[in-house]
Design a protein that fits this description.
This protein is 65% helix and 9% strand. The protein is mostly helical. The chain has two domains: 107 residues, Arc Repressor Mutant, subunit A (Orthogonal Bundle); 31 residues. Strand 1 and strand 2 form a beta hairpin. The protein is globular and about 60 Å long. The N and C termini lie far apart (61 Å).
């Protein structure tokens, strides 16, 4: 039987995962010449299926937490670089749909998919019960971090005593 894994081992592994994600993101941004929000939008678009709702500028603005003007500038940048195209929204001439145009065999697609492909491969090696444990664990961390960030933000916004 293998050695027991300590809580410190788990935290260390999570820190290693974070570090590899940061390094992967740095390489992707540098090699593609795009910013973090651009990469986030491209990854989001690449993961869409034909059954998903159309991606509108409003959806992207909400996802990124940026203004409509900043979203327009982001879409313009990606369109000018050939990463996305705009199409009319079905049934609404006032809105557009944003679609990715990254070729299936493009190195850019592989670079943008490193994390999701690695995670999917690792998840497939787990059994259903193990996947549930890992998903719950990661969700718990994300919720706890969000709570901590929200509390710090609230503390920063609280009026200071005189």
């Amino acid at each position: 039987m293998g050695e027991a894994t300590s809580a410190d081992d788990v935290v260390r592994a999570l820190n290693d995962l974070t570090d590899s994600g940061v390094a992967s993101e740095r390489v992707a941004l540098h090699s593609l010449g795009i910013g973090p929000n651009d990469a986030k939008v491209l990854r989001f678009l690449l993961q869409r299926t034909p059954d998903d709702e159309p991606v509108t500028p409003r959806l992207l603005a909400s996802m990124l937490g940026i203004s409509s003007a900043a979203t327009t500038a982001l879409i313009d940048r990606l369109a000018d670089a050939g990463w996305v195209e705009r199409e009319p929204y079905p049934g609404d001439r006032r809105s557009i749909v944003v679609r990715e145009t990254v070729h299936a065999d493009s190195p850019a697609r592989r670079i943008l998919a490193v994390r999701s492909d690695s995670a999917a491969a690792a998840a497939h090696r787990l059994g259903p019960a193990e996947r549930r444990i890992v998903a719950d664990f990661l969700t718990d961390i994300a919720r706890s971090e969000k709570r901590g960030i929200d509390e710090m933000s609230a503390d920063d916004e609280a009026p200071r005593g005189s």
